[in-house]
Structure formats: structure tokens, C-alpha cells
Amino acid sequence: MKATDHVLSSMITDALFEGYIMVRSLITKGEDASTSYLIREINKQAEEIFEVTKEKVATKQIQELFALYDGLWEKTTNYLDNLSDFSELEYNCTRTGKSMLLRLVRIADHEVIIFVQDITLQLQAEDIADIHQVLLDNIHDIILYFDMNGRVVNANAKACEEYGYTKEQLLETSIEDIYGDTNLEEINTQLGLHESKRMIFDSIHSRLDGSRFPVQVTVRNIKTGAGQLSMHIISDLTESKKQEVKIAWLARHDDLTGISNRASFFRQLEIELERATRERSKAAILLLDLDRFSLINDDYGYNAGDFVLKHLAARIKSILRQTDYMGRMGDDKFIILQTNVRVKADVISLAERISTVFKKPIFYKGQMVQVSASIGISLFPEDTRMPSELMHLVSQAVDSRKKLGGNGYTFSHNN
Fold this sequence. Notes:
- By secondary structure, the protein is α+β, with helices and mostly antiparallel strands.
- The protein has helices at residues 3-14, 44-50, 54-57, 62-66, 72-81, 120-126, 133-136, 157-163, 167-170, 175-179, 184-191, 238-250, 262-279, 294-300, 302-318, 344-359, 387-403; strands spanning 19-28, 34-42, 86-92, 99-108, 111-118, 142-146, 152-155, 198-206, 212-224, 227-236, 282-290, 325-330, 333-341, 362-364, 367-369, 373-380, 408-411.
- Strand 16 (373-380), helix 17 and strand 17 (408-411) form a beta-alpha-beta unit.
- The protein starts with a helix and ends with a strand.
- Residues 1-9 and 128-132 have low confidence and may be disordered.
């Protein structure tokens, strides 16, 4: 290998986050046939893990390096001799307390790379006996530890706060007190089906006062000095569920007025017209376009415009039947679907009641705001049976009303 290539190789391996050792196997033939593994490369991380230098172990056998840790070579040699492509092993040294994760990768017939990771602190962090309670209590999520009998053996301050128990009371509870019908055996059965040995699921948890709240739970089993424990990291989904409900509501409603938005109204329009076709009933569409509404925004400000729209929507909705539907079509347009129309007079009656709504003034910050509307009307099935054509005709009717000065209602030209 050229000097520049060797320097480049060292730079790359030193940039790794874990230890890196490349070894080459040497096979001794004869009656005492054996295999030894010569160290060819070692990076800085491996030097730190094994507390050696490159110069000290260069050209030496891996057996000599691993001999520094009781039983490491004995555990590794079987993996090396039988390695096909990849293997992984965990090593714990009882004398030094150090733990390592070794990954062995064969890159050629006689060459193997050994990646080494010091996992001592990681395993200590998972050991409940070594977790500092002050750190646990500053975690925003709920943390519960259960023994294999389903009893709570440790919990953080957030758990006490959310469930309403004192720490002493919580340590007297079981998983059934928290999860209700679910027990630890069922969770562990499901956990065993996951290759990662980690499971995430949604649940409903119970508080001391009997109230319940939605949560997301991450479960994993860990080995500690006290035996195997089940660690549950629990996130309160109450606010998240509220947001989901709000998002679902906004998908169907206009945020300002609370009535159906354009998309939701048209979905309902199709449903109701299909029903009317089956039942051979009639319906009417009334499109309301507020007259000179932009002047309200110009004279009083946009907050005044929003105030007027909210009040108008509420007043109009109050005179509709439960079987009628109302939606907002745009900044200054409302639309109404009147169902189960018997005669044209039913539609005229509704149009008159809506017109009366607009005759009542609205007061904004002590100032009277007067607004009128041009109302267009199309009828189903007299005008057409096609929803899109009904909308075209009702828009034409609004335009006709505007040309007459607004402030009233006009049926489509077909009527």
C-alpha cells in the first residue's frame, strides 16, 4: 500500500464512530494445524476501547489484544473460525465491568473486519438501579417500570402527576390498574412477535380518580441487576386527539362561521340529490351573494366583516329546518340546499324569511351595519337533474338579481 493510500485509509477508519480492526487469518498446516489472526489495521476508537496504540499492536495477533479481557478471545475465536459473512456478539467483562458489542464481517477469504462498540454506559443506563431519579423525573413522558408479575417497581414524577398517585401509592399498583383489562402477559406475547423487541401501540389509561385518557406506549423489556423488567414510555395523546378532532372538523366546516365548507356542502348535495331521485322528491338551491360587502371591510375593517359574516350565518341557520343544509361558498357567499320541497311556494317562503334576516341591522362596536343579499334560486328536478348544471343556473340567477339592483331573490330563467 502506498504511503498516501495508507494515510487516507487511516483518516477514513478514524472517522468511524466505533472501533475498527482488520485482521488476516494465517493457517498453520500439519499435525498441529491452527489458525491465527494477524492485526493489519486498527483505528483510534479501537485504541481507546482496548487502551493500546497502533504501534503497540501492529503485526501482533488479535489473540494478544483480546487476552487483556477475560474470556473475550475464547468467546470470539469460535465466531471467527466459523464466520461466513456476518456475525454479532456481546461481551461483558465481570472484572473490569466493561461491555462490548462486536460485529464480525468477512470481506475476503482470509480477511475479517471487527467493529467494536463500547456499550458499557448504554447497558448501565438501561439498568434501573443506575438511572438517576432526578434525570428520570425531568423527562416529559411518563415512565413506568413493571416487574414480570406486572407490579410497578419504579415511576417518574410525570407518572405520579398524570395518574394522580403519590410515588408510594403508584408502587402499590399493577399494570391492570393502569391499563384496565390488559395484562403484562398479553403485552409480552405481542412483544415477542416483534424482531426489534420493541413495540409501540395506542391505549387508554386510567387515573386514580377513575378518569381515562388516550396514550401512546413504547414497550421494551430490559435486563437489570434486579432481573428482567418491562419499561413503558408513555405519551399523553389528549392534546393530540383534540387536534385530530379539530382537523377533522375543519375538513368539513368553515373555520369562521362554523357552517359546512364548500367541499363538504357539495358532498352533501350529491347525497341529497341522489336520495331525492330515488324518492322522487324535490329540492332547491339558494345562492346568497352579499351586496357591496367589500364596503364593510373598507369602512369598518376586516374584523367587522368577519363579525357580520358570523352573525349572518348564525341567523340564517336558525331559520332552516334540520333537513336543510347551509355552506359557505366564498368570502361573501352562502349557499343553502332546501330538501323535501313540496311546491314552489315552499321555496318562496324560505327566500322571504332569509330576506327578513337581512333587514335586521347588525351592531358592531356600537355602530349599525346594514347588509343585503342577492339570492339566486334553482330547482331540482324542474330546472335540471345535474348538480353542476343546477349550480350554473343558480349563479346565473344571482347575476340577474345583481343587475336588478340586488336585495332580493330571483329564480333561474328556466322558472
